[in-house]
Design brief:
The protein is of the alpha+beta class. The chain has 4 helices and 25 strands. A hairpin with a 6-residue loop joins strand 19 and strand 20.
Length: 455
């Protein structure tokens, strides 16, 4: 029989083991209440910190969104580089993880954008069909003129002399820079160097060259030459001038204010103009060109240049023209008659005092004036009661005059004066025969009887 001490107490052991297990597994069932309480206590004590963290996160999110908007819209539309980079490709700048920005490609893109903008502002020469822009190359590519053209602004041929032409050109470059150019003609004329600045790759127009004063039948060309940055020129633009056969001005002529002697060689003329009705003894050397039946000349008087024009009329025996003193310049070739209306020549209404048959004034006086170079012109004619013979026409400072004899009846002398030789509208005068004398004046239909009639 065993002693009580050696008998195992298994039930108690089992209970103890079970009790130990229950204690271990029961702990989690009671922790949620305690944990919630602790969490609530943590949030209560740290709410300020939580709000600050959330605010910082929100601010960072806003800043990041603004950065994306700037890089994708603001920078692209302005064309301005960011942080010294000319990058126009936002995705390249944002996605690059190694810090590189492919500068070469981005430079070409940016230049292309700026060219489109600057062309409209700086060039200002859009012809309406092609804005002339070209893509800028890599920045390492040298500034170059690509094309040069020239053309005439109007007809390329003329049938009058003197003739003139105007030209304009076009220069196209591959990028911004300054071009030096000049115009050249077939006759060897070269303009001074001129410059044109380009702010981008574009085409610019030039309109700054004229050829004037071509007075002979001839032809030639003009071209536009670029001197730098590279040597290039346009094709030759040709011109042709056909002058009419020049009239014959050579010889000696009497004028309503003096005399002129002309030497002519083809279309070139020269000579001397003797101004007598204004200042007797004043001889003016001139040169000029002949175009058809007109002579265009000039001389220097009192230190100033004066231009004049003479035109052949009457089959080449009379002249009309203009000078600085009048647009009613006229004359006749030596030993030819003045045209009616030039100085004293032509028909007049007259008043002859004491001769009843001649009054009131009617168109009864007719004078013929025959030119004699550098001396008195020959005057003859008829009046209401007879003829005028042995008359002479000459000049005194400020006017022209006629002196002669009238017949039949009481033969006597008469003296007429035109105060303005360029405006033959009236003359004053008188007659005399022995102890008798009286007024004698005349006027054209376009005018009226001078007052006083007598001179």
């Amino acid at each position: 029989m065993q002693s009580p001490e050696t008998v195992p107490e298994k039930p108690k052991e089992t209970v103890e083991v079970s009790s130990a297990k229950n204690t271990s597994s029961a702990t989690p069932t009671s922790s949620p209440t305690k944990s919630a309480s602790k969490l609530k206590e943590f949030y209560s004590k740290n709410m300020t910190l939580v709000l600050v963290v959330c605010g910082v996160l929100l601010l960072l999110l806003i800043l990041f969104g603004g950065y994306l908007i700037y890089t994708n819209f603001v920078k692209d539309s302005s064309g301005q580089p960011e942080n010294g980079s000319d990058s126009e490709d936002t995705d390249d700048a944002n996605d690059s993880e190694d810090g590189s920005d492919d500068t070469g490609d981005d430079q070409a893109d940016t230049d292309g954008t700026n060219d489109g903008t600057n062309d409209g502002t700086d060039d200002g020469t859009d012809d309406g069909t092609d804005d002339g822009t070209v893509e800028d190359p890599d920045p390492d590519t040298p500034f170059t003129v690509i094309t040069v053209t020239a053309e005439t602004n109007g007809p390329s041929s003329m049938n009058t002399c003197p003739a003139g032409f105007s030209y304009f050109g076009h220069i196209r470059t591959n990028k911004a820079g300054t071009v030096t150019y000049y115009w050249q003609t077939s006759g060897g004329y070269v303009t001074e160097d001129r410059t044109l600045t380009f702010t981008s790759a574009t085409t610019k127009d030039l309109s700054d060259f004229l050829i004037l004063g071509i007075n002979t039948t001839s032809s030639g060309w003009v071209k536009l030459v670029v001197k730098s940055p590279n040597s290039i020129s346009s094709s030759n633009v040709t011109w042709t001038v056909t002058c009419p056969t020049p009239g014959n001005f050579a010889g000696q002529w009497s004028l309503n204010d003096g005399y002129i002697e002309i030497t002519q060689n083809g279309s070139q003329a020269s000579g001397v103009y003797k101004l007598r009705a204004v200042n007797p003894g004043e001889d003016l050397a001139f040169t000029g060109t002949v175009n058809g039946n007109s002579l265009y000349g000039s001389y220097t008087r009192n230190g100033s240049r004066e231009d004049f024009t003479l035109t052949l009329a009457g089959g080449g025996t009379t002249l009309t023209g203009s000078n600085p003193r009048s647009s009613s310049w006229c004359g006749a070739k030596n030993h030819s008659n003045f045209a009616s209306g030039c100085n004293f020549a032509g028909n007049w209404n007259e008043w002859v005092e004491g001769v009843v048959i001649c009054n009131p004034g009617d168109d009864t006086l007719t004078l013929t004036v025959k030119a004699h170079y550098d001396t008195y012109a020959e005057v003859s004619g008829t009046y209401c009661n007879g003829s005028i013979v042995n008359g002479q026409m000459g000049f005194t400072t400020g006017y022209s005059w006629v002196y002669g004899t009238w017949v039949p009846g009481d033969t006597g002398i008469m003296y007429f004066k035109i105060s303005n030789p360029y405006s033959s509208a009236q003359f004053q005068g008188h007659w005399s025969s022995g102890a008798n004398d009286g007024d004698w004046c005349g006027w054209k239909n376009s005018s009226s009887m001078p007052n006083p009639c007598v001179y």
